[in-house]
């Protein structure tokens, strides 16, 4: 499946999500008809996108899916890497290496750093990806916010950096990231506390979730739940640093910087893939 097809499938899923929220219990035939598709075409699109039928997928798009995940797929975190040291992890068949920028470099707001960027189609519609020579440092989704707001948001994080449009330079890392196969690198540009939180997020296996309070305990600061939530929200590399897997202790979704529909889609996408035959 091409990136363009993946983005189209997300738009179909996004429309289905709105319908499922508005009218729970729609049959496959009704859901397909409301989106001006035949049942067979609609089912084929969903099966190609996520590997399960639309009927099964509806379970993962419901508003209480986060609570079910928290009850059944909760993970306990252990952060094994100190701030500033390189680490690695695995997301499905994707091997991720990461390195943190030094606190001094971060304090200089990106001064002297060249950040390359480009727009790419992704499984969750249009994505803005940024990276340095050391790895990807930004990944934003524009389906809910719009392209201009996504760009302004990412550029404002490192205001003194030199931004150069060069999508081909980042393409191997981006292709691996969205295919979830091969290897990609991350360059984590943030304050020391933020990087600790983002490293904790990298420990959450695909298809599983954790809570903001669990992250606070994992980084040795159990009372800093609110600060952890803020740091999760400031994660610049969405999807790969999986802030969408952080939930409220109650099982509520919490916030998501690029829009709650995308967070719900990501959780549904990962659960379906984890449980598919």
Shape: globular
Largest sheet: 4 strands, mixed
The helix-strand sequence is HHHHHEEHEEEHEHEHEHHEH
The residue fraction in helices comes out at 40-55%
Q: How many helices in DSSP terms?
A: 12
Q: Mean pLDDT across all residues, rounded?
A: 81
Please give the alpha-carbon distance between the first and last residues: 19 Å
Structural class: alpha/beta
Number of extended strands: 9
| Beta content | 15-25%
Which strands sit side by side, in order, in the main sheet?
A: 5-4-3-6
Quaternary structure state of the chains depicted: single chain
Estimated radius of gyration: 19 Å
Low-confidence stretches: 79-86
Notes on the structure:
With 277 residues, the chain is an alpha/beta fold. Helix 2 packs across helix 3 (39-50), helix 4 crosses helix 12 and helix 10 crosses helix 11. The strands form three sheets. A four-stranded mixed β-sheet has the order 5-4-3-6, with helices on both faces. The protein has a three-stranded mixed β-sheet with strand order 1-2-7. Strands 8-9 form a two-stranded parallel sheet. Residues 79-86 have low confidence and may be disordered. The two termini are 19 Å apart. It is 45% helix and 19% strand. A hairpin with a 2-residue loop joins strand 3 and strand 4.
């Amino acid at each position: 499946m091409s990136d363009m097809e993946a983005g189209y499938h997300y738009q179909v899923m996004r429309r289905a999500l709105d319908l499922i929220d508005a009218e729970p219990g729609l049959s496959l035939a009704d859901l397909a008809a409301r989106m001006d598709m035949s049942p067979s075409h609609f089912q084929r699109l969903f099966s190609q996108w996520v590997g399960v039928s639309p009927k099964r997928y509806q379970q993962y798009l419901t508003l209480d899916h986060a609570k079910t995940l928290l009850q059944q797929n909760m993970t306990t975190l252990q952060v094994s890497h100190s701030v500033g040291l390189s680490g690695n992890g695995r997301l499905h068949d994707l091997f991720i290496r990461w390195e943190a920028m030094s606190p001094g470099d971060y304090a200089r707001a990106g001064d002297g750093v060249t950040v390359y960027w480009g727009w790419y189609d992704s499984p969750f519609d249009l994505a803005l990806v940024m990276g340095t020579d050391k790895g990807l440092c930004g990944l934003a989704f524009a389906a809910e916010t719009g392209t201009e707001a996504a760009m302004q948001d990412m550029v404002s994080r490192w205001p003194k950096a030199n931004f150069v449009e060069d999508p081909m330079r980042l393409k191997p890392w981006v292709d691996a990231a969205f295919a979830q196969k091969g290897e990609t690198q991350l360059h984590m540009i943030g304050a020391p506390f933020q990087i600790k939180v983002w490293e904790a997020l990298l420990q959450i296996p695909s298809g599983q979730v954790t809570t903001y309070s669990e992250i606070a305990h994992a980084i040795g600061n159990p009372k800093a739940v609110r600060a952890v939530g803020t740091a999760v929200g400031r994660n610049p590399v969405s999807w790969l640093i999986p802030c969408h897997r952080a939930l409220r202790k109650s099982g509520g979704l919490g916030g998501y910087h690029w829009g709650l529909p995308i967070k719900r889609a990501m959780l549904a996408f990962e659960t379906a893939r984890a449980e598919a035959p």
